[in-house]
Amino acid sequence: MRSNPAIRDFHVLVVAVTLTIPCAFAQKVNVGYDQSIDFSRYKTYTLQEPATSPTRPLLYASVIGSIQEELHAKGLASAEKDGDLTLQTAGGFDYGLESNSNLLSDSCSNCQRPIRDVGLWSGYIPPSTSSGKPRPKGVLELTFVDRGTNKIIWSGTVEQKLDPDKKEKSLEKINQAIVRLLADFPPKAR
Fold it and tell me: What is the CB neighbour count within 10 angstroms for residue 84?
C-alpha cells in the first residue's frame, strides 16, 4: 500500500513543529524600553566592565562575545570609552556574570545610578531586588544606559535552564537566548 506524499509531508511537518515547541518555550524573554527614545541615533556602545573578576572567565568571554556579535550585526560599534550607550550585563551563575554595581564608571562625572523613568516604559521590568527574590540561575540581564542623560533606555532579561554537565549544549542555549533577547533591539520607530 502506497502512502500519499502530501500526508507524509504533513506528518513530517507536524513532527518537526512538535519537536521545536519545547525549545521555543524554554526561553523566557522580558524586555522594557523608553518609548520616547529614537534608538536610531545611537551608533556606539561601551561595555561596562564587571566590578569583580568573573568566576568563570571563559564562559564570561563567550557570553560577552555573543552579545557583541549580535550588536555589531545590528550596526552598533563597540567603543572602549564614551560610547553613546553604556551596556551593563548581569546574570545568574550559569551565565558567568555576576550582578554589576550599576555605577557607570565611564559614563558620568559623579557615577550615580542610572535613572529609569517607568512612566515612559513598555514592558517595565522591576529591579531584581524589588520582589525580595534573588536572581535565579540561568538568567541574563542586559541594560542600555544613555551616556548623555544617564537614563536607562532599554532593559531585557532572558531566562534559560542550563545543564552544567552538558557544557556544549548549554553554550548553544546561551547563544540562542542572546539572539532571542536582542531580536527586537533596537526597537523600531513607531
Answer: 17
8 Å CB contact between 50 and 100: yes
Q: Which residues lie across from 88 on neighbouring strands? A: 143
Distance of alpha carbon 116 from the chain centroid = 18
Confidence of residue 138 (pLDDT cuts 50, 70, 90): confident
Measured distance CA(178)–CA(38) in Å, rounded = 23
Whole-angstrom CA distances from 74 to 9, 187, 188 are 36, 11, 12
Q: Domains in the chain and their CATH numbers?
A: 28-181 (3.30.160)
- Residue 143 · residue 87 · CB < 8 Å: yes
pTM score, whole prediction: 0.70
CB count, 10 Å around CB of 105?
13
Q: What is the DSSP string of 137-187?
A: TTEEEEEEEETTTTEEEEEEEEEE---TT-HHHHHHHHHHHHHHHTTT-SP
**Cell numbers describing residue 77:** 560599534
